[in-house]
Amino acid sequence: MDTPTAQRFSALQADLAEAWLANLPGSDADHSLIALPSHSVAESLLAHYGPRVRALEHRYLVVYLMLHRVPHCELVFLCTQQPDHEVIEYYDSLVAAHTGRSALERFRVVVVDDGTPRSVSAKLLDRPDLLEELRACRRGRLAFVQPWNVTDLEVRVALELGMPMNGTSPELWPLGYKSAGRRMMREAGVPVPYGHEDVRSVDDVVAAVTDIQTARPEARGVVMKLDDSGAGDGNVVVGLRAADGSAADLAEIRERVETLASWYLTDLAAGGVVEELVSAPQFRSPSVQVGISPHGEVTVLASHEQVLGGDSAQVFTGCRFPADRAYAPQIAHHAETVGQALAARGAVGRAGVDFAVAGDDAGRWDCYALEINLRNGGTTHPFAVLRNLVPGAYDVRTGRWVAEADGSSRAYRATDNMVDIAWLGLAPSAVIAAVSDAGLDFDHVAGTGVVLHMLSCLAIDGRFGLTAIGRDEEHADWLLDATREAVDRISRS
Q1: Residues 383-433: pLDDT tens digits?
Q2: 3-class DSSP state for residue 443?
Q3: Contact at 8 Å (CB) between 198 and 271?
Q4: Nearest by Cα to 166 from 27, 318, 24
Q5: Which of 98, 268, 449, 481 is 20 to 30 A from residue 190's alpha carbon, by CA?
Q6: What CATH number is attached to the domain comprising 418?
Q7: DSSP letters along 226-291, please?
Q8: CATH number, position 231
Q9: Domains: count for the chain
Q10: What is the pLDDT of residues 182-197, one digit of tens each?
Q11: Coiled-coil regions in this chain (predicted)?
């Protein structure tokens, strides 16, 4: 981003605070919100999702659930594929009754697509007609854009629309890279695994491994991470122990790294880290969401247990809320420290901090911060479901959700990966009906139940997502399992 553009964007961002305040529950200020789930990320990360990217945009249709709490908001949702009408009706059925204009009257979808695999923002910038249509939506009111992440493309969109963006300027985007994030967290006094930043070649990797073996002779392995990656897609685990328990030969480690995919080594040249693989009798991978207001205030929003999968158990597949209370206050404290460091550098909007937590047989837990995500992530949309359907607040001291209505607790299981090839081609309406017929729908009186998302992915690979809100962790698990059984029944019939 050149200097004149950065200056124009900074001036525009001065309008964010007032528009952001208008969007808080209880506000009576008329305003517009443009939801922009544009995945402006590295090609390697886009390739990880492939044809599912369009369906991933639809995860954020759950923002619709906010409309009953903010009755003076008009919401425009941008995406590259029109959601099924039944899906919009489904979300409308979940919002509580309110006075004034209905949520459906204050919601519209704008589809921007040109058949290319580019992000929503890139496509939108080629459509002056749609840009003008979005400018007209404002009608002189307060307005801002809520992005998935912010790159130069999103800055150009904001400037074209004349609307500030609730996200961190791309000038600070490198703070979300693995190397810069590790450095900043370490300088802030937040513990990180032993390792090295700014690794760019096979020689650098081998040198880092050599040092880790020397400094941490008991280390079982290391994790290589690409600086500009997400969802664990750029992570590679390299073992440091041979089958007999002896230290692995460095020549074998070099050969392993040299034979990685060519795209990986190309991306590694742009930067990466090598750090000790945290392992223990008990291992967890929690994360913490923080919100940074336009005024620089930092709020710990939620903690989650990440559910990891893939060949090396490094790929995010879902989450549990909240994180284990044995260490939830500890990671919340570290995440708040990270949030304050980000805010001091000018970050705004949503940020996430991933952790590795190691527990011993005596019940002691050591927490290590792994990386910072300066964007929305896999825990953003399920948390939006909870806070809009069961309003309340996360208590960082106890690690629990406290409902504002009666002080009761909630827990949830969420995933974007409820998948079965037998479900390929199932209609979204059929899955919605299956959940309803099984009595699993969200119930406003009980404050529990299942909320579906990403239903357009059923046509791609038989996949959809859900957030199962329960009274406690066991109830949330039961709701998730019952949903799978309900969809199985309709697929068999």
Answers
A1: 999 999 999 999 999 999 999 999 999 999 999 999 999 999 999 999 999
A2: strand
A3: yes
A4: 24
A5: 268
A6: 3.30.70
A7: ESS--TTTTEEEEE-B-TTSSBPPHHHHHHHHHTS-HHHHHHHTT-EEEEE----SEEE-EEEEEE
A8: 3.30.1490
A9: 4
A10: 999 999 999 999 999 9
A11: none
